[in-house]
TrEMBL record, chain A:
Alphabetized Gene3D superfamilies for the sequence: MetI-like (1.10.3720.10)
Species: Spirosoma pollinicola
Protein name: Sugar ABC transporter permease
Cross-referenced SUPFAM superfamilies: MetI-like (SSF161098)
Main location group: membrane
Keywords: Cell membrane, Membrane, Transmembrane, Transmembrane helix, Transport
Protein's UniProt keywords contain Transmembrane: yes
Family per similarity comment: Belongs to the binding-protein-dependent transport system permease family.
The UniProt record lists the keyword Transport: yes
InterPro entries for this protein: MetI-like, MetI-like_sf
UniProtKB/TrEMBL annotation, chain B:
Family statement drawn from the similarity comment of this UniProt entry: Belongs to the binding-protein-dependent transport system permease family.
Pfam family, one: BPD_transp_1
Annotated compartments: Cell membrane
GO biological process: transmembrane transport
Membrane association type: Multi-pass membrane protein
Main localization (coarse): membrane
Transmembrane intervals: 12-39, 59-85, 97-117, 148-171, 202-223, 251-274
Protein name: Sugar ABC transporter permease
Record keywords, A-Z: Cell membrane, Membrane, Transmembrane, Transmembrane helix, Transport
Protein backbone atom coordinates (compact mmCIF):
# COMPACT_ATOMS: atom_id res chain seq x y z
CA UNK A 1 0.00 0.00 0.00
CA UNK A 2 2.65 2.46 1.11
CA UNK A 3 4.66 1.44 -1.91
CA UNK A 4 1.81 2.18 -4.31
CA UNK A 5 1.25 5.57 -2.69
CA UNK A 6 4.95 6.38 -3.02
CA UNK A 7 4.83 5.33 -6.64
CA UNK A 8 2.01 7.76 -7.39
CA UNK A 9 3.64 10.58 -5.47
CA UNK A 10 6.77 10.16 -7.57
CA UNK A 11 4.84 9.89 -10.82
CA UNK A 12 2.78 12.98 -10.06
CA UNK A 13 5.89 14.94 -9.09
CA UNK A 14 7.50 13.93 -12.35
CA UNK A 15 4.41 14.83 -14.39
CA UNK A 16 4.24 18.24 -12.70
CA UNK A 17 7.89 18.89 -13.52
CA UNK A 18 7.21 18.24 -17.18
CA UNK A 19 3.88 20.07 -17.52
CA UNK A 20 4.15 22.96 -15.10
CA UNK A 21 6.97 24.79 -16.94
CA UNK A 22 4.80 24.94 -20.05
CA UNK A 23 1.83 26.31 -18.15
CA UNK A 24 4.12 28.80 -16.46
CA UNK A 25 5.41 29.81 -19.87
CA UNK A 26 1.96 30.65 -21.19
CA UNK A 27 1.03 32.58 -18.09
CA UNK A 28 4.38 34.41 -18.03
CA UNK A 29 3.91 35.45 -21.64
CA UNK A 30 0.64 37.08 -20.61
CA UNK A 31 2.13 38.78 -17.54
CA UNK A 32 3.67 42.21 -17.19
CA UNK A 33 7.48 42.15 -16.97
CA UNK A 34 7.37 42.51 -13.17
CA UNK A 35 5.21 39.42 -12.81
CA UNK A 36 7.68 37.20 -14.65
CA UNK A 37 9.58 35.80 -11.72
CA UNK A 38 6.50 34.61 -9.92
CA UNK A 39 5.62 30.95 -9.77
CA UNK A 40 1.88 31.24 -10.24
CA UNK A 41 -0.23 29.38 -12.75
CA UNK A 42 -2.21 32.49 -13.70
CA UNK A 43 -0.77 35.62 -15.33
CA UNK A 44 0.26 38.44 -13.00
CA UNK A 45 -1.01 41.78 -14.28
CA UNK A 46 -2.66 40.31 -17.38
CA UNK A 47 -1.57 41.92 -20.63
CA UNK A 48 -1.28 41.07 -24.33
CA UNK A 49 1.58 43.51 -24.74
CA UNK A 50 4.29 40.84 -25.07
CA UNK A 51 2.51 39.39 -28.08
CA UNK A 52 1.88 42.83 -29.56
CA UNK A 53 5.61 43.58 -29.21
CA UNK A 54 6.65 40.29 -30.85
CA UNK A 55 4.44 40.85 -33.87
CA UNK A 56 5.56 44.46 -34.35
CA UNK A 57 9.26 43.54 -34.10
CA UNK A 58 9.42 40.38 -36.18
CA UNK A 59 7.26 38.98 -39.02
CA UNK A 60 6.15 35.96 -37.02
CA UNK A 61 2.93 35.57 -39.02
CA UNK A 62 4.95 35.35 -42.21
CA UNK A 63 7.35 32.88 -40.56
CA UNK A 64 4.37 30.76 -39.54
CA UNK A 65 3.22 30.60 -43.16
CA UNK A 66 6.79 29.83 -44.33
CA UNK A 67 7.15 27.03 -41.78
CA UNK A 68 3.76 25.56 -42.63
CA UNK A 69 4.40 25.72 -46.37
CA UNK A 70 7.85 24.16 -46.10
CA UNK A 71 6.88 21.48 -43.58
CA UNK A 72 3.69 20.39 -45.37
CA UNK A 73 5.16 20.34 -48.88
CA UNK A 74 8.34 18.57 -47.77
CA UNK A 75 6.41 15.98 -45.79
CA UNK A 76 4.36 15.26 -48.91
CA UNK A 77 7.53 14.79 -50.96
CA UNK A 78 9.07 12.53 -48.29
CA UNK A 79 5.95 10.34 -48.41
CA UNK A 80 5.93 10.10 -52.19
CA UNK A 81 9.66 9.43 -52.60
CA UNK A 82 9.71 7.07 -49.61
CA UNK A 83 6.79 5.03 -50.97
CA UNK A 84 8.33 4.73 -54.42
CA UNK A 85 11.76 3.64 -53.24
CA UNK A 86 10.41 1.54 -50.38
CA UNK A 87 8.08 -0.31 -52.74
CA UNK A 88 10.85 -1.07 -55.23
CA UNK A 89 13.08 -2.39 -52.45
CA UNK A 90 10.31 -4.49 -50.90
CA UNK A 91 8.46 -5.93 -53.86
CA UNK A 92 10.55 -5.73 -57.02
CA UNK A 93 13.49 -7.80 -58.03
CA UNK A 94 16.30 -5.98 -59.78
CA UNK A 95 20.07 -5.94 -60.06
CA UNK A 96 21.60 -3.69 -57.40
CA UNK A 97 18.66 -3.79 -55.01
CA UNK A 98 20.60 -5.02 -51.98
CA UNK A 99 23.35 -2.59 -52.82
CA UNK A 100 20.92 0.34 -52.62
CA UNK A 101 19.51 -1.00 -49.38
CA UNK A 102 22.96 -1.04 -47.75
CA UNK A 103 23.65 2.41 -49.11
CA UNK A 104 20.55 3.67 -47.32
CA UNK A 105 21.66 2.10 -44.04
CA UNK A 106 25.08 3.69 -44.52
CA UNK A 107 23.52 7.09 -45.20
CA UNK A 108 21.62 6.88 -41.93
CA UNK A 109 24.76 6.32 -39.87
CA UNK A 110 26.68 9.13 -41.54
CA UNK A 111 26.99 12.09 -39.14
CA UNK A 112 25.47 15.24 -40.67
CA UNK A 113 28.47 17.29 -39.50
CA UNK A 114 30.43 15.99 -42.46
CA UNK A 115 27.95 17.13 -45.13
CA UNK A 116 26.86 20.40 -43.52
CA UNK A 117 29.39 22.77 -45.11
CA UNK A 118 29.52 21.13 -48.56
CA UNK A 119 25.73 21.13 -48.70
CA UNK A 120 25.69 24.84 -47.92
CA UNK A 121 28.14 25.38 -50.78
CA UNK A 122 25.86 23.38 -53.09
CA UNK A 123 23.03 25.72 -52.14
CA UNK A 124 25.20 28.74 -52.94
CA UNK A 125 26.22 27.25 -56.30
CA UNK A 126 22.63 26.43 -57.23
CA UNK A 127 21.58 29.94 -56.26
CA UNK A 128 19.15 28.53 -53.72
CA UNK A 129 20.24 30.59 -50.73
CA UNK A 130 17.27 32.60 -49.48
CA UNK A 131 14.79 30.48 -51.43
CA UNK A 132 12.31 27.84 -50.31
CA UNK A 133 14.12 25.32 -52.49
CA UNK A 134 17.02 25.28 -50.00
CA UNK A 135 14.60 24.39 -47.22
CA UNK A 136 12.64 21.79 -49.19
CA UNK A 137 14.80 19.86 -51.68
CA UNK A 138 17.56 18.57 -49.33
CA UNK A 139 14.85 17.17 -47.02
CA UNK A 140 12.52 15.85 -49.73
CA UNK A 141 13.76 12.32 -49.21
CA UNK A 142 14.47 10.52 -45.98
CA UNK A 143 16.23 7.22 -45.45
CA UNK A 144 14.10 6.42 -42.42
CA UNK A 145 10.93 6.93 -44.44
CA UNK A 146 12.20 4.54 -47.14
CA UNK A 147 13.03 1.87 -44.56
CA UNK A 148 9.65 2.20 -42.83
CA UNK A 149 7.81 1.98 -46.15
CA UNK A 150 9.92 -1.00 -47.21
CA UNK A 151 9.05 -2.82 -44.01
CA UNK A 152 5.34 -2.06 -44.38
CA UNK A 153 5.20 -3.11 -48.04
CA UNK A 154 7.00 -6.36 -47.25
CA UNK A 155 4.15 -7.31 -44.92
CA UNK A 156 1.59 -7.05 -47.75
CA UNK A 157 0.72 -10.16 -49.83
CA UNK A 158 2.12 -10.41 -53.34
CA UNK A 159 -1.35 -11.46 -54.55
CA UNK A 160 -2.57 -7.89 -54.10
CA UNK A 161 0.03 -6.68 -56.60
CA UNK A 162 -0.44 -9.56 -59.04
CA UNK A 163 -4.20 -8.96 -59.19
CA UNK A 164 -3.69 -5.27 -59.85
CA UNK A 165 -1.20 -6.02 -62.62
CA UNK A 166 -3.71 -8.36 -64.28
CA UNK A 167 -6.13 -5.44 -64.30
CA UNK A 168 -3.50 -3.45 -66.13
CA UNK A 169 -2.52 -1.08 -63.32
CA UNK A 170 0.91 0.50 -63.63
CA UNK A 171 3.36 0.53 -60.71
CA UNK A 172 2.49 4.07 -59.58
CA UNK A 173 -1.21 3.15 -59.36
CA UNK A 174 -0.32 -0.04 -57.52
CA UNK A 175 1.68 1.91 -54.94
CA UNK A 176 -0.56 4.89 -54.38
CA UNK A 177 -4.06 3.55 -54.99
CA UNK A 178 -3.88 -0.09 -54.02
CA UNK A 179 -1.10 -0.60 -51.46
CA UNK A 180 -0.96 2.71 -49.56
CA UNK A 181 -4.53 2.40 -48.17
CA UNK A 182 -3.39 -0.82 -46.50
CA UNK A 183 -0.50 0.73 -44.63
CA UNK A 184 -1.99 3.97 -43.32
CA UNK A 185 -0.42 3.57 -39.85
CA UNK A 186 3.03 3.68 -41.47
CA UNK A 187 2.02 6.73 -43.49
CA UNK A 188 0.88 8.44 -40.30
CA UNK A 189 4.12 7.55 -38.51
CA UNK A 190 6.26 8.99 -41.29
CA UNK A 191 4.07 12.07 -41.57
CA UNK A 192 4.41 12.81 -37.86
CA UNK A 193 8.16 12.20 -37.69
CA UNK A 194 8.88 14.24 -40.78
CA UNK A 195 6.58 17.13 -40.02
CA UNK A 196 7.80 17.40 -36.45
CA UNK A 197 11.45 17.31 -37.46
CA UNK A 198 10.95 19.97 -40.11
CA UNK A 199 8.83 22.19 -37.90
CA UNK A 200 11.48 22.19 -35.17
CA UNK A 201 14.61 22.37 -37.32
CA UNK A 202 16.64 25.51 -36.61
CA UNK A 203 20.24 24.90 -37.74
CA UNK A 204 19.78 24.44 -41.49
CA UNK A 205 17.49 27.47 -41.95
CA UNK A 206 20.00 29.55 -39.96
CA UNK A 207 22.59 28.58 -42.55
CA UNK A 208 20.71 29.01 -45.82
CA UNK A 209 18.21 31.79 -45.10
CA UNK A 210 19.22 35.39 -44.38
CA UNK A 211 16.16 37.19 -45.72
CA UNK A 212 13.69 37.68 -42.90
CA UNK A 213 10.66 37.20 -45.14
CA UNK A 214 11.82 33.65 -45.96
CA UNK A 215 12.67 32.57 -42.42
CA UNK A 216 10.98 29.68 -40.63
CA UNK A 217 9.57 30.06 -37.14
CA UNK A 218 12.32 28.35 -35.09
CA UNK A 219 14.96 30.32 -36.97
CA UNK A 220 13.23 33.66 -36.53
CA UNK A 221 12.56 33.02 -32.84
CA UNK A 222 16.18 31.93 -32.32
CA UNK A 223 17.58 35.06 -33.97
CA UNK A 224 15.09 37.23 -32.12
CA UNK A 225 16.09 35.64 -28.86
CA UNK A 226 19.87 35.98 -29.28
CA UNK A 227 19.80 39.28 -31.14
CA UNK A 228 19.19 42.61 -29.46
CA UNK A 229 15.65 43.07 -30.67
CA UNK A 230 13.98 41.49 -27.67
CA UNK A 231 15.83 44.21 -25.72
CA UNK A 232 16.37 41.89 -22.82
CA UNK A 233 12.62 41.64 -22.28
CA UNK A 234 12.10 38.08 -21.19
CA UNK A 235 8.33 38.22 -21.54
CA UNK A 236 8.64 39.03 -25.21
CA UNK A 237 11.06 36.14 -25.84
CA UNK A 238 8.75 33.79 -24.01
CA UNK A 239 5.76 34.98 -26.03
CA UNK A 240 7.71 34.20 -29.22
CA UNK A 241 8.56 30.74 -27.86
CA UNK A 242 4.89 30.10 -27.02
CA UNK A 243 3.90 30.98 -30.58
CA UNK A 244 6.50 28.53 -31.87
CA UNK A 245 5.29 25.74 -29.57
CA UNK A 246 1.53 26.15 -30.04
CA UNK A 247 1.03 24.52 -33.48
CA UNK A 248 2.96 21.37 -32.64
CA UNK A 249 1.41 21.10 -29.16
CA UNK A 250 -2.07 21.33 -30.69
CA UNK A 251 -1.19 18.56 -33.14
CA UNK A 252 0.20 16.55 -30.23
CA UNK A 253 -3.03 16.91 -28.26
CA UNK A 254 -4.95 15.44 -31.20
CA UNK A 255 -2.51 12.69 -32.18
CA UNK A 256 -0.85 11.98 -28.81
CA UNK A 257 -0.69 8.20 -29.09
CA UNK A 258 0.51 8.36 -32.67
CA UNK A 259 3.26 10.82 -31.79
CA UNK A 260 4.53 8.56 -29.02
CA UNK A 261 4.31 5.40 -31.12
CA UNK A 262 6.01 7.06 -34.10
CA UNK A 263 8.90 8.40 -32.07
CA UNK A 264 9.34 5.10 -30.30
CA UNK A 265 9.42 3.18 -33.58
CA UNK A 266 12.04 5.53 -35.02
CA UNK A 267 14.12 5.18 -31.87
CA UNK A 268 14.00 1.40 -31.98
CA UNK A 269 15.00 1.31 -35.62
CA UNK A 270 18.76 1.50 -35.17
CA UNK B 1 6.18 -3.98 -65.71
CA UNK B 2 8.99 -2.72 -67.86
CA UNK B 3 12.53 -3.75 -67.14
CA UNK B 4 13.65 -0.28 -66.12
CA UNK B 5 10.65 0.46 -63.90
CA UNK B 6 12.44 -0.46 -60.63
CA UNK B 7 15.26 1.92 -61.49
CA UNK B 8 12.79 4.68 -62.22
CA UNK B 9 11.20 4.09 -58.84
CA UNK B 10 14.51 4.24 -56.94
CA UNK B 11 15.79 7.18 -59.00
CA UNK B 12 14.73 9.80 -56.40
CA UNK B 13 17.00 8.09 -53.90
CA UNK B 14 19.92 7.78 -56.31
CA UNK B 15 19.61 11.44 -57.25
CA UNK B 16 19.31 12.59 -53.65
CA UNK B 17 22.18 10.36 -52.59
CA UNK B 18 24.42 11.68 -55.35
CA UNK B 19 23.73 15.35 -54.67
CA UNK B 20 23.32 15.47 -50.89
CA UNK B 21 25.44 12.55 -49.63
CA UNK B 22 28.08 11.28 -52.07
CA UNK B 23 29.09 14.61 -53.55
CA UNK B 24 29.32 16.46 -50.20
CA UNK B 25 31.35 13.66 -48.61
CA UNK B 26 33.86 13.71 -51.47
CA UNK B 27 33.80 17.49 -51.67
CA UNK B 28 34.38 17.80 -47.93
CA UNK B 29 37.58 15.78 -48.29
CA UNK B 30 38.68 18.06 -51.13
CA UNK B 31 37.84 21.12 -49.04
CA UNK B 32 40.03 19.95 -46.17
CA UNK B 33 43.09 20.55 -48.39
CA UNK B 34 42.02 24.05 -49.35
CA UNK B 35 41.65 27.50 -47.98
CA UNK B 36 38.49 29.17 -49.24
CA UNK B 37 36.32 32.11 -48.28
CA UNK B 38 33.68 31.09 -50.87
CA UNK B 39 34.17 34.34 -52.87
CA UNK B 40 37.71 34.20 -54.19
CA UNK B 41 39.00 30.98 -55.85
CA UNK B 42 39.93 27.97 -53.72
CA UNK B 43 43.55 27.76 -52.73
CA UNK B 44 45.38 24.46 -52.25
CA UNK B 45 47.19 24.47 -48.91
CA UNK B 46 48.06 20.81 -48.41
CA UNK B 47 47.73 19.61 -44.84
CA UNK B 48 47.70 23.08 -43.28
CA UNK B 49 44.07 22.75 -42.17
CA UNK B 50 44.87 19.53 -40.32
CA UNK B 51 47.96 21.03 -38.71
CA UNK B 52 45.91 23.99 -37.61
CA UNK B 53 43.21 21.69 -36.25
CA UNK B 54 45.62 19.73 -34.08
CA UNK B 55 46.89 22.95 -32.54
CA UNK B 56 43.47 24.60 -32.33
CA UNK B 57 42.77 24.83 -28.61
CA UNK B 58 39.20 25.99 -29.22
CA UNK B 59 38.32 22.93 -31.30
CA UNK B 60 39.59 20.53 -28.66
CA UNK B 61 37.85 22.58 -26.01
CA UNK B 62 34.62 22.20 -28.02
CA UNK B 63 35.15 18.44 -28.27
CA UNK B 64 35.91 18.26 -24.57
CA UNK B 65 32.79 20.32 -23.80
CA UNK B 66 30.71 17.83 -25.73
CA UNK B 67 32.32 14.92 -23.87
CA UNK B 68 31.65 16.63 -20.52
CA UNK B 69 28.07 17.14 -21.64
CA UNK B 70 27.70 13.46 -22.53
CA UNK B 71 29.32 12.22 -19.32
CA UNK B 72 26.52 13.88 -17.34
CA UNK B 73 23.73 13.62 -19.87
CA UNK B 74 23.89 9.90 -20.72
CA UNK B 75 23.99 8.39 -17.20
CA UNK B 76 21.39 10.89 -15.99
CA UNK B 77 19.17 10.14 -18.96
CA UNK B 78 19.35 6.38 -18.42
CA UNK B 79 18.87 6.68 -14.68
CA UNK B 80 15.83 8.97 -14.84
CA UNK B 81 14.27 7.16 -17.80
CA UNK B 82 14.67 3.76 -16.11
CA UNK B 83 13.11 4.99 -12.86
CA UNK B 84 10.16 6.57 -14.64
CA UNK B 85 9.70 3.50 -16.85
CA UNK B 86 9.84 1.19 -13.81
CA UNK B 87 7.24 3.36 -12.08
CA UNK B 88 5.00 3.23 -15.13
CA UNK B 89 5.47 -0.46 -15.83
CA UNK B 90 2.88 -2.99 -14.63
CA UNK B 91 -0.37 -1.22 -15.33
CA UNK B 92 -0.58 1.93 -13.31
CA UNK B 93 -3.82 3.86 -13.37
CA UNK B 94 -3.48 6.88 -15.63
CA UNK B 95 -0.39 5.44 -17.28
CA UNK B 96 -1.28 7.00 -20.61
CA UNK B 97 -1.63 10.42 -18.98
CA UNK B 98 1.80 10.15 -17.38
CA UNK B 99 3.38 8.95 -20.59
CA UNK B 100 1.85 11.84 -22.50
CA UNK B 101 3.10 14.29 -19.88
CA UNK B 102 6.66 12.98 -19.93
CA UNK B 103 6.60 13.15 -23.70
CA UNK B 104 5.50 16.78 -23.98
CA UNK B 105 9.03 18.32 -24.06
CA UNK B 106 10.11 15.76 -26.68
CA UNK B 107 7.80 17.13 -29.35
CA UNK B 108 8.49 20.85 -28.97
CA UNK B 109 11.46 22.59 -30.54
CA UNK B 110 14.73 22.83 -28.63
CA UNK B 111 14.38 26.57 -29.20
CA UNK B 112 11.25 26.65 -27.03
CA UNK B 113 12.78 24.53 -24.30
CA UNK B 114 15.92 26.65 -24.23
CA UNK B 115 14.07 29.96 -23.93
CA UNK B 116 11.98 28.44 -21.16
CA UNK B 117 15.01 27.15 -19.26
CA UNK B 118 16.85 30.41 -19.71
CA UNK B 119 14.29 31.86 -17.34
CA UNK B 120 14.23 28.85 -14.99
CA UNK B 121 18.04 29.06 -14.66
CA UNK B 122 18.37 32.83 -14.53
CA UNK B 123 20.58 33.93 -11.63
CA UNK B 124 18.46 36.78 -10.32
CA UNK B 125 14.88 35.96 -11.18
CA UNK B 126 15.02 32.27 -12.12
CA UNK B 127 12.57 29.89 -10.54
CA UNK B 128 15.29 27.44 -9.52
CA UNK B 129 17.25 30.04 -7.60
CA UNK B 130 14.08 31.35 -6.00
CA UNK B 131 13.35 27.84 -4.75
CA UNK B 132 16.90 27.60 -3.39
CA UNK B 133 16.56 30.96 -1.67
CA UNK B 134 13.28 29.86 -0.16
CA UNK B 135 15.09 26.85 1.31
CA UNK B 136 17.90 29.20 2.42
CA UNK B 137 20.45 27.54 0.15
CA UNK B 138 22.82 29.95 -1.63
CA UNK B 139 21.95 30.69 -5.24
CA UNK B 140 23.85 29.00 -8.06
CA UNK B 141 25.10 30.78 -11.19
CA UNK B 142 23.67 28.03 -13.41
CA UNK B 143 24.67 29.62 -16.68
CA UNK B 144 27.42 32.05 -15.66
CA UNK B 145 29.74 29.77 -13.74
CA UNK B 146 32.20 28.13 -16.16
CA UNK B 147 32.31 25.03 -13.97
CA UNK B 148 28.53 24.63 -14.00
CA UNK B 149 27.08 25.99 -17.27
CA UNK B 150 27.57 22.90 -19.47
CA UNK B 151 26.05 20.65 -16.82
CA UNK B 152 23.02 22.93 -16.58
CA UNK B 153 22.55 22.45 -20.31
CA UNK B 154 23.02 18.68 -19.88
CA UNK B 155 20.24 18.63 -17.28
CA UNK B 156 17.99 20.68 -19.53
CA UNK B 157 18.64 18.31 -22.46
CA UNK B 158 17.75 15.39 -20.21
CA UNK B 159 14.49 17.05 -19.25
CA UNK B 160 13.71 17.58 -22.93
CA UNK B 161 14.53 14.07 -24.20
CA UNK B 162 13.87 11.72 -21.31
CA UNK B 163 10.23 11.11 -22.28
CA UNK B 164 11.31 9.34 -25.44
CA UNK B 165 13.66 7.06 -23.53
CA UNK B 166 10.97 6.28 -20.96
CA UNK B 167 8.88 4.92 -23.83
CA UNK B 168 11.79 2.90 -25.24
CA UNK B 169 12.52 1.40 -21.81
CA UNK B 170 8.82 0.64 -21.28
CA UNK B 171 8.80 -1.36 -24.51
CA UNK B 172 11.94 -3.14 -23.29
CA UNK B 173 10.56 -3.83 -19.81
CA UNK B 174 7.30 -5.19 -21.16
CA UNK B 175 9.18 -7.71 -23.27
CA UNK B 176 10.68 -9.39 -20.18
CA UNK B 177 8.68 -12.60 -19.55
CA UNK B 178 6.82 -12.54 -16.21
CA UNK B 179 7.89 -16.16 -15.54
CA UNK B 180 11.44 -14.98 -14.89
CA UNK B 181 10.26 -12.80 -12.01
CA UNK B 182 7.96 -15.53 -10.71
CA UNK B 183 10.84 -17.98 -10.70
CA UNK B 184 13.04 -15.43 -8.93
CA UNK B 185 10.30 -14.89 -6.33
CA UNK B 186 10.28 -18.64 -5.60
CA UNK B 187 14.03 -18.49 -5.05
CA UNK B 188 13.48 -15.59 -2.64
CA UNK B 189 15.29 -12.98 -4.71
CA UNK B 190 15.22 -9.36 -3.51
CA UNK B 191 13.87 -6.55 -5.68
CA UNK B 192 17.41 -5.35 -6.33
CA UNK B 193 18.55 -8.83 -7.35
CA UNK B 194 15.60 -9.14 -9.71
CA UNK B 195 16.45 -5.79 -11.23
CA UNK B 196 20.16 -6.53 -11.49
CA UNK B 197 20.02 -10.09 -12.78
CA UNK B 198 16.78 -10.19 -14.79
CA UNK B 199 15.67 -6.72 -15.85
CA UNK B 200 19.06 -5.20 -16.60
CA UNK B 201 20.39 -7.99 -18.84
CA UNK B 202 17.05 -8.21 -20.65
CA UNK B 203 16.91 -4.50 -21.45
CA UNK B 204 20.60 -4.26 -22.35
CA UNK B 205 19.79 -3.72 -26.06
CA UNK B 206 17.54 -0.80 -25.12
CA UNK B 207 20.27 0.70 -22.96
CA UNK B 208 22.58 0.45 -25.94
CA UNK B 209 20.02 2.22 -28.16
CA UNK B 210 19.62 4.98 -25.59
CA UNK B 211 23.40 5.44 -25.28
CA UNK B 212 23.88 5.67 -29.03
CA UNK B 213 20.88 7.94 -29.64
CA UNK B 214 21.85 10.34 -26.87
CA UNK B 215 25.47 10.32 -28.00
CA UNK B 216 24.46 11.31 -31.51
CA UNK B 217 22.04 13.97 -30.28
CA UNK B 218 24.71 15.24 -27.86
CA UNK B 219 27.26 15.56 -30.63
CA UNK B 220 24.65 17.54 -32.60
CA UNK B 221 24.22 20.04 -29.77
CA UNK B 222 23.82 23.48 -31.28
CA UNK B 223 20.70 25.50 -30.69
CA UNK B 224 20.70 25.09 -26.89
CA UNK B 225 24.09 26.70 -26.18
CA UNK B 226 23.64 29.06 -29.13
CA UNK B 227 20.58 30.62 -27.51
CA UNK B 228 21.40 30.07 -23.86
CA UNK B 229 25.04 31.12 -23.53
CA UNK B 230 26.42 31.74 -27.04
CA UNK B 231 29.15 29.31 -26.04
CA UNK B 232 30.17 31.21 -22.90
CA UNK B 233 31.21 31.62 -20.14
CA UNK B 234 34.83 31.33 -21.30
CA UNK B 235 33.85 28.97 -24.14
CA UNK B 236 32.85 26.27 -21.67
CA UNK B 237 29.55 25.63 -23.49
CA UNK B 238 30.91 26.01 -27.00
CA UNK B 239 29.75 22.87 -28.81
CA UNK B 240 31.56 21.38 -31.80
CA UNK B 241 28.70 22.14 -34.20
CA UNK B 242 28.64 25.73 -32.93
CA UNK B 243 32.35 26.02 -33.60
CA UNK B 244 31.94 24.62 -37.13
CA UNK B 245 29.11 27.09 -37.69
CA UNK B 246 31.23 29.99 -36.41
CA UNK B 247 34.23 29.14 -38.55
CA UNK B 248 32.03 28.90 -41.63
CA UNK B 249 29.56 31.72 -41.21
CA UNK B 250 31.32 34.26 -39.03
CA UNK B 251 34.84 33.95 -40.44
CA UNK B 252 34.07 32.36 -43.83
CA UNK B 253 36.79 29.74 -43.34
CA UNK B 254 35.03 27.14 -45.50
CA UNK B 255 38.04 24.86 -45.91
CA UNK B 256 38.85 24.85 -42.23
CA UNK B 257 35.22 24.48 -41.25
CA UNK B 258 34.89 21.46 -43.54
CA UNK B 259 38.02 20.01 -41.91
CA UNK B 260 36.42 20.46 -38.50
CA UNK B 261 33.23 18.77 -39.71
CA UNK B 262 35.16 15.91 -41.26
CA UNK B 263 37.33 15.21 -38.20
CA UNK B 264 34.42 15.64 -35.84
CA UNK B 265 32.38 13.13 -37.83
CA UNK B 266 35.28 10.67 -37.55
CA UNK B 267 35.34 11.21 -33.78
CA UNK B 268 31.58 10.54 -33.61
CA UNK B 269 31.86 7.32 -35.63
CA UNK B 270 34.80 6.21 -33.48
CA UNK B 271 32.88 6.84 -30.25
CA UNK B 272 29.80 5.00 -31.50
CA UNK B 273 31.89 1.98 -32.56
CA UNK B 274 33.59 1.90 -29.14
CA UNK B 275 30.20 2.13 -27.43
CA UNK B 276 28.90 -0.76 -29.50
CA UNK B 277 31.82 -2.95 -28.45
CA UNK B 278 31.69 -1.97 -24.81
CA UNK B 279 27.96 -1.81 -24.16
CA UNK B 280 27.27 -5.10 -25.93
CA UNK B 281 29.72 -6.90 -23.68
CA UNK B 282 28.37 -5.26 -20.54
CA UNK B 283 25.91 -6.96 -18.18
Amino acid sequence: MAQTALKYVLLILAAVSFIYPFIWMVSASLSSESGLSSLTLLPVGFTWSNYVTVFTKIPLDRAFLNSSFVAILTTGLVLISGAMVGYALAKLDFVGRDWIFYLIIFTMTLPFQITLIPNYITMVRLGWVDTYLALIVPFALSSLSILLFRQAFQSLPQALIDAARLDGANEMRIIFQILIPNILPTVLTITILTFMGLWNEALWPLIVIRDESRMTMPQLVTLFSVGGRAEGQLGVKIAAAVMLAIPIVILYLFFQKHFIRSMASSGLKD
Amino acid sequence: MKKWTPYLLVSPYILHFAVFVAFPVVFSVVLTFHSWNIISPMQYIGLANYEHLFKDRLFWQAVWNTVRFLLVHIPLQIFVALILAELLNRTVRGASFFRAAFFLPVIVSGVVVTILWQQLLSYNSGILNRLLTAMSVPRVAWLDDPAVAMYSIAVMATWKNVGLYVILFLVGLQSVPMQYYEAADLEGATNWQKFRFITLPMINPTIFTVVVLSTISGFSLFVEPYIMTQGGPMNTTLSAVMYIYRQAFQFYHMGYSATLGFCFALIILFVVVIQRRYVEQEV
